[in-house]
Amino acid sequence: MRIVLITGISGSGKSVALHVLEDAGYFCVDNLPPSLLCDLVQTRIQEGASRLAVATDARSADSLATLRHDIDQLRADGHDVKVFFLTASSETLITRFSETRRSHPLSHRLLPGGNPSDRLTLSECIELEKEMLADMQEIGLVMDTSQLSSNKLRGWIKDLVDLERSPLTLLIESFAFKHGLPLDADLVFDVRMLPNPHYDLALRPLTGRDQPVIDFLDADAEVAEMFNDIRRFVEKWLPSFKGDNRSYLTVAIGCTGGQHRSVYLAERLASHFRATEQVVCRHRQLDRRQQVVAAQSPQQ
């Protein structure tokens, strides 16, 4: 059976991810206590099902301790189990809860030693939940949704779920340092010292996927040296990450705006590693920029 477990911080997009899986034909269960996971799998197998998606969070924190063992057991039994841990910055989560005007799932907990009228603030709920779920991040792929639209998150989930089972998936992503480090990065490379196409007026509106920008960066010896340094580093340590029983390794390439240099290098690295590895390439700021441009374009 193909099993996808969605967990993470409230407000980070777990419901969006679960809806994508439901649309893809998965039988979905939200807020399932982890202690019931194995029983649910057996029930669905008896019913002839082949796909199952489950979401769980801090509301079931008391039974999360056994989840890692259950996942290992399911994999040992031959099931294809993927685990996605969704998170976001505290500032982003506060904004999302404020916009939706929904209460945090932990908001009804009493403060230690408090009376029934005392409740945790939203900020306290978020920090408490992150502390409660800290160990869960080691189980699967961490996805930082801080700067992602719902549509972009849907696309990422679709790409990851469609992957065939393999020892490790290499995720290579570009990002903009001016928007902060992505929380899901395992390795981060700073390429802001490389020549910047932004200062060429003809290249400024283009991206690292466009041929004029590619030609500009291909012609620079420092860019080629940086590519080879990153390539060699990843090639050297990738076997060790595989030996650590990782399912995913996220390599983040950052420049100032996430439009030219980081996109170019991410695409080039992805192209190189696809010959030997299962690779997903994604661009944080590039897709958001294209959405803004499309929204600003005159209606046809």
From TrEMBL:
Enumerate the UniProt keywords alphabetically. ATP-binding, GTP-binding, Kinase, Nucleotide-binding, Transferase
Q: Does the keyword Isomerase apply?
A: no
Quote the Pfam families the UniProt record gives: PapZ_C (PF22740), RapZ-like_N (PF03668)
Task: Provide the RapZ-like N-terminal domain boundaries.
Answer: 1-159
- Residues recorded as binding GTP, renumbered to this chain, are D57, A58, R59, S60
| Residue span, RapZ C-terminal domain | 169-286
| GO molecular function per UniProt | ATP binding; GTP binding; kinase activity
Q: Which PANTHER family match?
A: RNASE ADAPTER PROTEIN RAPZ
NCBIfam families per the UniProt record, alphabetical: PRK05416.1
Protein name (Swiss-Prot/TrEMBL) = p-loop-containing kinase protein
